[in-house]
Structure formats: C-alpha cells, structure tokens
Amino acid sequence: xxxxxxxxxxxxxxxxxxxxxxxxxxxxxxxxxxxxxxxxxxxxxxxxxxxxxxxxxxxxxxxxxxxxxxxxxxxxxxxxxxxxxxxxxxxxxxxxxxxxxxxxxxx
Length: 107
Known about the structure:
Elements: H1 4-9, H2 20-28, H3 31-36, H4 44-51, H5 62-101
C-alpha cells in the first residue's frame, strides 16, 4: 500500500489543469465577495504575472539612475564628513594626552 505522499509525487503541477480566469471570475461573483469588492478588482495583473508568467516591462532607468547617483553622492559626502570629524576628535584626544603627560607635576 502506497502512502499519500508517494502517490502525490507522481503528479506534477503541469498535470493539473485549472482555468484560473474562470476560477477567479466565479470567486468574484460570489455574493459575499461582491459586497466586499468595492474597487471592482479583477486580478488581471496577478493572473498575467503568476499564471501566464508575463511581466510588465519596466520604464527606462533614466530617472531612477540619476536619483540613485544623487543618493550615492550624498552617502559618500556624509561618510567623508564623519571620517573627517573622527580624525579631528582623535587628534584632539591625542593633543590632550600629550598635554597632561607633559605637566611638571605628572609622574
């Protein structure tokens, strides 16, 4: 006697034929769903992407590339300012150490 798992492995996703569009239409026409679907969603985009595996082409990257470059420049500018401030603080700390170690009464 075979287990359910071994019998299920004989099936593949491609063996199961489901008309997704008809299933979605039946779901959307159900009385409980119709009352909640105020935006009159049809799930066309979801069906196109996840069932038909057709994706919407992206717009040209001109605007996003320039915005990305602006963000990278701003990040590098802040990073450079932080590094300069850190060097200044380290130099100030070393100057104070030298001052306090060179006092005549220090041991």
